[in-house]
Amino acid sequence: MGLPGSVVWDSALLGYDLGGEHPLHPVRLELTMRLAATLGVLDGVELLVPQEATDEEIERVHDAGYLAAVREAPMAGWDVGHGLGTPDNPVFDNMHEASARVVGSSLLAARQIASGTTKRAVGIAGGLHHAMRDHAHGFCVYNDLAVAISWLLDNGYERIAYLDTDVHHGDGVQAAFYDDPRVLTISLHQNPLTLFPGTGFADETGGPNAPGSAVNVPLPPNTGDRAWLRAFHAVVPSLLAEFQPQLLVSQCGVDTHHEDPLASLSLSVDGHRTIYRTVRALAEQYAGGNWLAAGGGGYALLRVVPRSWTHLIATVLDRDVPADTTLPSEWTRFVDKIAPTAELPLTMSDGKSVDFEPWDGEDGERVDSVIKEVRRAVFPLHGLDPDDPRD
Ligand SMILES: [Zn+2]
C-alpha cells in the first residue's frame, strides 16, 4: 500500500541562506529532515527533488522587473531597490536560483496532488508568505505558495483554501488573491499592532469582487495553545464547510512557539502537533483529503523547529509520532557537535496539555472578543451567523 503523502526535499534547498546572523538559518531545515529520518518517519519514502521554477512560473505572481533585480542583485551595487539589500532581506549569492528552487518545491508538491499521484504533499522549505509582487518582504524573496496556488487555478482547481498558522500575517498570499473569489485565505497570527508586518486586522475581508475571501484572526500576545485552538475552531471549520475547497494549502510557520525569539505567542510543540492533526482532519472532511503543506517562520532553530516540523511531516504521512517519544541520541549528538552549548529538550513534546473549551457564544475567555470580532466581520459574507456557535 502506498503512503498517503509525498515529501519534497533536496539539500540544495539549504542554499536559501540569508547569511550567518540572519534568523532564518537553513540549519533548521537540515535538522528537521535529519530528525525525521532518525525517527524512521521517512523510512521507505522517496524524497521528491524539486527543480528551480522557471521565470514564467514565478511571473505568475511577480513582476519580470523584480525577477531581473533579484537575479542581478549579487553582482549589482548597494542600491538595487525592491526591498533587497536590507537587514531583513540581504542579498546573497545565487539568490534568484535559491529562491526559484523554493518555488519549485511548492510547485512540485502542487503538481503531485493535481496529477492524482498523491493526496498530500509537504515541503518544509516553502511557505515564504510575505513576498510581494514587486518586492522582497519579511525574509521572503519569491512567494512559493502564491505561485503554487496560481498554477493550481490554471490546472483544474476552482476553490482553494489557504490556511496560514505562522505567527505573522500571511500578507503576501493574501495580497495575491485578495480580490479572487476562488481562493479563501485564512490567517491566524499575533495582533499586527504588536508585530510585523502590521497588517491582518479582522476587517481585511477581501476585495470588491471577493467579499469574505480574506479572513484574519489577530490574536493578542501571550495567547497559548488552548486559546489559539479555541479561536481556530470558532472560525475555521465553519468557513471551510461553507467554502467547500477542493484543496487545502497550509503554511505551517512555528514562530508561534513561546520560545520563538521574534514573536510573542505562547504555543508549544504539542500545540503545533495538534494543529497539524486538525488540519489533516479538516482536509479529509472538507477538501477531499487534498492537503499541500509548507513550512514558514520559526526561529528557535534547534529546540523547536526540528521537532515541530518532524511532527508535520509525520502527520502528512499518517506516521504520527507519539508526543512522549524520546529525542534520539543520534540526533542530539549531531546537534551537540554544531551547537555545543545548546540545551536540548528530551522528548518530542513540551509536556503541555492542549485540551481546550470550545467557544459557546458567550464571553468566557480573553480571546473571545477576537472570536466575535472576526466572526462578525466575515461570517455574514459567507451566509453564516456570527453569534450562533453552531455556525
Ligand atoms: Zn513568521
TrEMBL record:
Residues 22-315 form the Histone deacetylase domain. Pathway: Ketone degradation; acetoin degradation. GO terms for molecular function: histone deacetylase activity. Belongs to the histone deacetylase family. This is Acetoin utilization protein AcuC. It comes from the Bacteria. Pfam families: Hist_deacetyl. Keywords: Acetoin catabolism. One of its GO terms (biological process) is acetoin catabolic process. Transmembrane segments: none annotated.
